[in-house]
Amino acid sequence: MRHQKSINHLGRTSTHRKAMLSNMASSLIMHKRISTTIAKAKALRGYVEPLITRAKIDSTHSRRVVFSYLQDKDAVTELFREVSVKVADRPGGYVRILKTGFRLGDNADMCIIELVDYNESLLSIKESTTRKTVRRRKPAAKKTADTAAEAPVAEKASKSKASKAEKADVVAEAKAEVVAEPKAEVVADAKVEEVAAEEVVETPVVDEAKETETEGK
After folding, report:
1. Which SS3 state, helix, strand or coil, does residue 137 take?
2. Scanning 35, 107, 120, 199, which has its CA 20 to 30 A from the CA of 184?
3. Phi–psi pair at 33, nearest 5 degrees
4. Is the distance from CB of 75 to CB of 48 less than 8 angstroms?
5. Measured between alpha carbons, how far apart are the two ends of the chain, in Å?
6. Residue 217 in this model has a pLDDT that exceeds 50
7. 3-class SS at 205?
8. Which of 53, 36, 50 is nearest to 97 (CA)?
9. In this structure, what DSSP letter does residue 105 have?
10. 12: how many CB neighbours lie within 10 A of its CB?
11. Quick check: 44 pLDDT over 90?
């Protein structure tokens, strides 16, 4: 069980592990990017980053300390002359690990470990995507412009409401006319019947006997 074991020995003895990390650190400083397994890359990150931090102070003591770890004069010269100048403004995190998949032989997790400030493609992408945003209050002119822009919208809304109201009135009037027409016809028919009744005159009934008597006289 891995209880409180913070150091990954990588299946090697102490001297073998130190020699391997020293060679990998020298290769990383010289080539700026190497391919390895994720376990070795994580161990190398903790090994090389303190050396880069120490290289920011270019003194004889710092050079001797770094040389005791790397055991390579060319790597020490490259670190103090080139790399330390490139990462001078960075407070830490000089190394990036990028996973690349699995190795065909033993299916080990593979990755690329590189110095952050030497990947020009990623740096250009970050510069193009990053944009400074500053929160500021809107000035009064903008507010007036906004209100002026909102005024035509309000007028259009009021006009549309008025047109809707007019349409509703027209529809209501048409319905009222349709409902009132049959009632008017009924009233007109009633008036015609009354007039016809008034024009009719009752004819008096005359007895035929009385008429003959008057004729005899």
Report:
1. coil
2. 199
3. -165, 130
4. no
5. 162
6. no
7. coil
8. 36
9. T
10. 13
11. yes
Cα–Cα distance measured from residue 19 to residue 5, given in angstroms and rounded to the nearest whole number: 21
In this prediction, residue 69 has a pLDDT band, given cuts at 50, 70 and 90, of very high
Q: Whose CA is closest to 37, among 26, 29, 45?
A: 45
pLDDT-derived band of residue 51, with 50, 70 and 90 as boundaries?
Answer: very high
8 A C-beta contact, residue 95 and residue 49: yes
With contact defined as beta carbons under 8 Å apart, do 74 and 30 qualify?
yes
Burial degree of 64 (CB within 10 A; 0-12, 13-18, 19+): exposed
As a residue count, the chain comes to: 217
Tell me which of 62 and 169 has the higher pLDDT: 62
d(CA 87, CA 115): 9
Per-chain mean pLDDT for the chain: 79
DSSP state of 93: -
